[in-house]
Amino acid sequence: MNAPQPLTTAGPCPDDAWLNRFAALGPAFHTELPPSGLPDPHWVARSAACAEQLGWADDWWQQDGTLAVLAGNALWPGMRPVATVYSGHQFGAWAGQLGDGRAHLLGELQTADGRSFEIQLKGAGLTPYSRMGDGRAVLRSSTREFLCSEAMAALCIPTTRALAIAGSALPVRRETIESAAVVARTAPSFMRFGHFEHFAHSDQHEALRELADFFIATQAPECLDAPQPVVALLERVARQTAELLAQWQAVGFCHGVMNTDNMSMLGLTLDYGPFGFLDGFDPGHICNHTDRQGRYAYARQPNVAFWNLHALAQALLPLMPGEREAAGEQLLGALEVYRQAFPDALLARMRAKLGLSLPQDEDRALVDDWLRLLAAHRVDYTIANRRLARHASDGGALRDLFLDRPGFDAWFERYQARLAAEPRPAQEREAAMLASNPAVVLRNHLAEGAIRRAQAGDFSEVQRLLAVLQRPFDEPALASDAGFPPDWAQHLEVSCSS
Ligand code: AMP
Ligand code: MG
Predict the structure, then answer these.
(1) Which ligand is nearest to the CA of 100?
(2) Given the CA of residue 271, which atom of ligand 1 is nearest to it?
(3) Rounded mean pLDDT, 473-489
């Protein structure tokens, strides 16, 4: 593949908008190298909402060179592309060095309103960290990542964003031959737990210190005011991860590959692979076909996050002053933040879903019993919660979901009694519940429908589905977008292959 062409025009942002602070860190942290683009690229999809966040004008995608840059074929002046090095624990075992095997951080952009976003291409060729991989991503997995990133953002769940997908006829070998694509993603920082683990496990403590100082200065400056900034940093990550996991559990999202290299230091949903949203409520649901043991099953995610935070704490230990044992105790103390924050955050989310605005002691049991009822007959999680939101106007539709009518009636009676203690008028509550219980989530069959058409050269369904997912709390024009999964969807298998 040819080297990307340096452009003389700046594209949708001025030349001096590029900060590139991670690139400036030096060669211990990354390898500077240009992306390897796609031959004869075309647009597959674009997110206007993501571009707006960058402060780009509406015609950003029509500007000179935008497609070439986002396909990896050109660079705007001021960009300084790097692939970063990290390590991590995969499926509970130390995996050693990993790194951006198919990601290029093109640069860090400062917006006019003073925020900064890294722009990363996924699938733009080999890097020194590609190991056995080919540095590419296929249209199928790129479409899933693109749609889910933007869907999560619209659900107000912390996530990396997706700006666009560039496609190409370039063949890529997976289980079958597929076509290549590049996703352009953005986040304030793509730093992972694994970045810290890398320098701790390889005994590069100076570099570890530099990385922590860098992250705190650029992303978590409030930690500098704490007596022990490293402890404050861990508490911050623990708190944000607790909030993230509460949101995943409440919406019924399974990540699928919660390895420490896929855990964001900003508590963002990161690296969309074999993710899935629950259809029928099943706490043991495993969305990743490759995860035979169910390490990352839905109900296990909160504990896995806690385990991953321990791995991060371990990586931060060399930065602590004083005696090792006492330092370890201090870091373990910081992890307690997660243990307290997660159940509270989850209960707050579930209260909102049930329309309970005035906390009461009985709420936890009421929520647990609701979930037990759903689990007993694998009732569709999204549809049941949505119908619960509408129960005042259409209680029959809710009751119809349950085979165990007496079981449902008993719970519903308790719920009605509980609502009697609520100060909010019913109409106001219903509006709030409809804003807490999405009508549409990115179920596998919805993504699959868009992918099949995209693979046949018709990208309109990707763009249509994006528009629906960007308004997840509205009733969609096509009722099937909010409906039960079709029978054929039960046989969809989603694996790590991407
Ligand atoms: P994942 O679990 O998909 O987030 O990826 C784990 C590691 O494998 C990361 O270091 C990725 O960069 C790398 N990787 C995955 N797929 C590829 C690929 N096709 N080419 C190069 N590296 C890859
Ligand atoms: Mg990853």
Answers:
(1) 1
(2) 4
(3) 97
